[in-house]
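ok trying again, last paste got cut off:
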Amino acid sequence: MKKIIYPGTFDPITNGHLDIAERASKLFDELIFVVANNPDKQQLFSVAERMEMISKSTGYLSNIKVETTKILTVDFAKENSALAIIRGLRHVSDFEYEFQMAMMNYNMAPEITTIFMMPSEKYVHLNSSILKDIAKLKGNVSEYVPVYVLEQLQSKLNS
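nice, full thing came through this time. structure:
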């Protein structure tokens, strides 16, 4: 079985993330979202809430799993016999960081390939941080997230 992992904080998952996941899931037998708890970022949603949002947003895709880990992404990939790690690239500025991570992962596990995928054009400008900023100021983000995520976002920000 050919597996790929898709790591990230997904706080929250956006249609840009889903666009990449849908396309990558067609290339592999199984795609595993790996929800990170990044101490360098202040998350709006808990890991459990983010996992639930991803599960509900990807229910129409039969080969998706959602997990979390406290180990290195590359070690998670090895433990789960994944062939690759998928990373989304929106802009050239993303590439510098992602390239460094890919090279470090390659040094630790040369059998794991990093695949870079660009989102569809309509999502190139989208990221979770900007989305949360717009939502906090009552801006309309409905075209950028699934309905369930929008409901959770509005509920969290209005409480």
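cool. The beta strands are 3-8, 30-35, 64-68, 84-88, 113-117. The chain is about 40% helix and 15% strand.
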